[in-house]
């Protein structure tokens, strides 16, 4: 099955992960199913019950990604409610506190045809915002920078520990994917990009493995249940297993320095997990400076080079143009201050209209419908009211900016380092011969 994360195609297929956007900041992930054990005997398949209505999956499967889906006209809620309650109870038990938002939206009363949602295919970015949290996760501003510094590119192998909630896993598999999921690479020389993910907590390892299968990423991600401090990074048996031959490594662990002894070119026993033919790029993610320092000390002892530390301080910047017009002397470009009561009233009116337009753009369907009705009433009242002076025409104004403080990210110290490949006498001879044949 092609992964919707990598090759989503045009239409939503059955048994595929889809993201249901209820609002701009409320996304509900669901696997589209043509059947539902809890809804046996009905043809609409699984039903997603939300505060905006019931959405039978039969109305979504086969639709183009990005479609607006209307809630069911049939009240599937009454029979869905039993399943809904069970589902909400399940969520409450299995993910205490972590998935309250989803659980809350499941618990909402269900009414027929009360709204709509938008259905999109998942991306690592939207998955990070909607995944069920089992741990702290790495957010997009951090992982986009990390993957760039790790030179994660199609065909390379990434080691990740711990897998946690799988946020970084999804971003890294997209970075190394080279277009042949589960198949052969294009040429014998080309390797299939792969993520080797290690997780110490058994339940978390199981959940990530299930998600990888549900998301069509089998063969591209291999999840191993393992304490990497003790047992390192070989695949299969910790002592005699295969080497992942990784060229990029990301450690999101409480004590990354304890894992570094396994990331060497010539281990005392077993194979090295590193790619013998490539420089290896490493990043560790630690919330406090003492941990970063300890990691750096161990890196130096183990011959890692180019060690540097970065903290990603990501801010969204809201850029606006100041409104300007003609001042009292008729000079264009001056900031407009109201001089008369009429002008002040007029300015308030324009500001209000602008704020309303902004609010409208961020509402869901149901709210937009209610707002449009209110708007009609207001317009009628305004037409009947006294005629004010015309709204001034604003010219190009000075650009101003303000940064948005609340961007979801878990700031940590990122320590980067590289380990060059070993250079043998054989390599030297090969290089010399090539050089001689080139001249
Ligand atoms: N990077 C993950 C993500 O983006 O979703 C989050 C990782 S979470 C902060 C840290 C994980 O490391 C936890 O799930 C924990 O169980 C795991 N862990 C801790 N010690 C470990 C060890 N010795 N070996 C493997 N995993 C370990």
Sum this structure up briefly.
With 439 residues, this protein is α/β, with parallel strands linked by helices. It is built from 11 helices and 17 strands. The strands form 5 sheets. It has a 7-stranded mixed beta sheet, sandwiched between helices. It has a 4-stranded antiparallel beta sheet with strand order 2-1-6-5, covered by helices on one side. It has a two-stranded antiparallel sheet with strand order 3-4.
Mean of all residue-level pLDDT scores: 82
Helix content: 25-40%
**Order of strands, widest sheet:** 9-8-7-10-11-17-12
Question: Stretches where pLDDT falls below 50 for ≥5 residues?
Answer: 80-112
Question: What is the tally of beta strands?
Answer: 17
- Supply Rg: 28 Å
Strand content: 15-25%
Report the biggest beta sheet as strand number plus sense, adding barrel if it closes.
7 strands, mixed
Query: What is the distance, rounded to the nearest whole angstrom, between the alpha carbons of the first and last residues?
Result: 50 Å
SSE series: EEEEEHHEHHEHEHEHEEHEEEEHHEEH
The shape, in one word, is globular
- The helix tally amounts to 11
> Which cofactors or ions or other ligands sit in this model?
S-adenosylmethionine
| Structural class category | alpha/beta
Task: Describe the protein in words.
With 439 residues, the chain is of the alpha/beta class. The chain has eleven helices and 17 strands. Strands 9-8-7-10-11-17-12 form a seven-stranded mixed β-sheet, with helices on both faces. A four-stranded antiparallel β-sheet has the order 2-1-6-5, covered by helices on one side. It has a two-stranded antiparallel ribbon with strand order 3-4. α6 (202-214) links the parallel β8 and β9 (221-225). The chain starts with 16 loop residues before the first strand and ends with a helix. It binds S-adenosylmethionine. One of its GO terms (molecular function) is tRNA (adenine(58)-N1)-methyltransferase activity. Residues 115-418 form the tRNA (adenine(58)-N(1))-methyltransferase catalytic subunit TRM61 C-terminal domain.
């Amino acid at each position: 099955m092609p992964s919707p994360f990598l090759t989503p195609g045009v239409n939503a297929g059955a048994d595929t992960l889809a993201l249901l956007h209820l609002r701009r900041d409320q996304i509900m992930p669901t696997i589209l199913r043509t059947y539902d054990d809890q809804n046996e005997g009905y043809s609409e398949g699984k039903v997603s019950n939300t505060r905006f209505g019931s959405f039978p999956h039969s109305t979504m499967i086969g639709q183009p990604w990005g479609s607006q889906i209307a809630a069911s006209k049939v009240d599937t809620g009454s029979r869905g409610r039993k399943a809904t309650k069970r589902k909400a109870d399940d969520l409450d038990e299995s993910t205490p506190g972590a998935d309250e938002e989803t659980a809350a939206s499941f618990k909402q009363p269900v009414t027929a045809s009360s709204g709509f949602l938008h259905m999109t295919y998942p991306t690592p970015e939207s998955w990070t915002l909607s995944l069920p949290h089992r741990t702290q996760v790495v957010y997009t501003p951090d992982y986009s920078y990390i993957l760039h510094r790790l030179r994660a590119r199609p065909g390379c192998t990434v080691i990740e520990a711990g897998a946690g909630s799988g946020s970084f896993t999804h971003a890294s598999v997209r970075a190394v994917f080279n277009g042949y999921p589960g198949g052969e690479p294009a040429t014998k020389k080309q390797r299939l990009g792969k993520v080797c993910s290690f997780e110490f907590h058994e339940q978390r390892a199981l959940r990530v493995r299930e998600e990888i299968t549900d998301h069509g990423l089998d063969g591209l991600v291999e999840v191993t249940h393992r304490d990497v401090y003790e047992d390192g990074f070989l695949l299969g048996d910790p002592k005699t297993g295969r080497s992942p031959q990784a060229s990029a490594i990301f450690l999101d662990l409480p004590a990354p320095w304890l894992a570094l002894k396994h990331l060497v070119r010539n281990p005392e026993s077993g194979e090295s997990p590193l790619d013998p033919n490539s420089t290896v790029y490493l990043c560790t993610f630690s919330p406090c400076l003492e941990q970063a320092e300890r990691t750096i000390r161990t890196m130096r002892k183990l011959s890692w080079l180019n060690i540097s530390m970065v903290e990603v301080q990501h801010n969204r910047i809201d850029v606006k143009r100041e409104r300007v017009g003609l001042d009292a002397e008729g000079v264009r470009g001056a900031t407009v201050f109201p001089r008369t009561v009429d002008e002040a009233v007029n300015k308030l009116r324009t500001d209000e209209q602008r704020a309303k337009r902004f609010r409208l753009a961020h509402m869901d369907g149901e709210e937009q419908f209610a707002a449009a009705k209110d708007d009609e009433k207001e317009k009628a009242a305004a037409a009947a009211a006294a005629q004010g002076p015309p709204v001034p025409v604003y010219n190009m104004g000075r650009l101003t900016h303000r940064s948005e403080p609340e961007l979801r990210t878990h700031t940590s110290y990122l320590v980067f380092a590289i380990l060059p490949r070993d250079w043998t006498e054989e390599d030297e001879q090969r290089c010399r011969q090539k050089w001689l044949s080139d001249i």
